[in-house]
Amino acid sequence: MTKIILRGCNGKMGQVITELLVNDEQAQIVAGIDLNGIAKNGYPVFKSFSHCNVDADVIIDFSSPKGLEDMIFYGQNKNVPIVLCTTGLSEEDIAMVSEGSKKVGILRSANMSLGINTLLKLVQAATKVLVAADFDIEILEKHHNQKVDAPSGTALLLADAINEVLNKEYTYQYDRSKELAPRGKKEIGISAVRGGTIVGEHEVIFAGTDEVIEFKHTAYSKAVFAKGAIQAAKFLAGKGPGLYQMSDVIE
Ligand SMILES: NC(=O)C1=CN([C@@H]2O[C@H](COP(=O)(O)OP(=O)(O)OC[C@H]3O[C@@H](n4cnc5c(N)ncnc54)[C@H](OP(=O)(O)O)[C@@H]3O)[C@@H](O)[C@H]2O)C=CC1
Ligand SMILES: O=C(O)C1=N[C@H](C(=O)O)C[C@H](O)C1
């Protein structure tokens, strides 16, 4: 049985994971971490890792970049690897994750769904062909009105996957208003829409002369992310230090 600490357990994703694990015979939540510290799902909830005294195999984090350092510190000290699903990380946070993974296993992914992780490979293959034919690349993402970060972590993940194929020569253009409106040659445009209860939509648009190819992923429920996170937690439990990705879990 994989024993999980769920950080952000009282949030939207935390609740979906909690529900999915009720009937899971291979994994269970042994504790939650959440700012309000309210226990409502039959497992203890602590306000921070400094109060958490349970025996666990893995941490799943869907919360906020705040307190990231404490979580990594806990993981290193207790030898508990971390599935890091939280987005909106700064460059400093990402460097901290990279450094931290030298002492504890960390799997970071801005999107745990099978669909997006398949899309990453598809857009890389398309980029190789289409950029050589002078196509421009734009990414459009849409999310619910509660989302605190923009652009989405997934939009950045897609842009980074594309840029990897382009030897990291492209820059990201987040705002086309005013003087930034004209398009540069080696750039990936990234735009965000926020409204209602949109779970998550990502479009990668390759626009050439007289033809356009669009790749689109739509999440219809948060369960697609929760299932991927649970799969990743089962994979990561017992693994040693290192920086892991969803592609290590989903071949
Ligand atoms: N990788 C992926 O596939 C996905 C990633 N995400 C990301 O996961 C994160 C959470 O999303 P979501 O569940 O929708 O957000 P919510 O705001 O609904 O939930 C976040 C929860 O974490 C708590 N929290 C905030 N800060 C801390 C902290 N420092 N320590 C402990 N708990 C904290 C919040 O408490 P309070 O409400 O009191 O602030 C809240 O209960 C976001 O970054 C989102 O982008 C979301 C979906 C999929
Ligand atoms: O906050 C969300 O809801 C989501 N966040 C992730 C992101 O920033 O890419 C993944 C998903 O699209 C839902």
Automatic annotation (TrEMBL):
Q: Identify the domain of life.
A: Bacteria
Keyword field contains Cytoplasm: yes
Query: Dihydrodipicolinate reductase C-terminal domain spans which residues?
Result: 115-250
Where is the Dihydrodipicolinate reductase N-terminal domain positioned along the sequence?
3-112
Kindly list the positions annotated as binding NAD(+): G8, C9, N10, G11, K12, M13, D34, C85, T86, T87, S109, A110, N111, M112
Q: In which pathway does it act?
A: Amino-acid biosynthesis; L-lysine biosynthesis via DAP pathway; (S)-tetrahydrodipicolinate from L-aspartate: step 4/4
Q: What does this protein do?
A: Catalyzes the conversion of 4-hydroxy-tetrahydrodipicolinate (HTPA) to tetrahydrodipicolinate.
Q: Which family does it belong to?
A: Belongs to the DapB family.
HAMAP family linked:
DapB
Name of the protein: 4-hydroxy-tetrahydrodipicolinate reductase
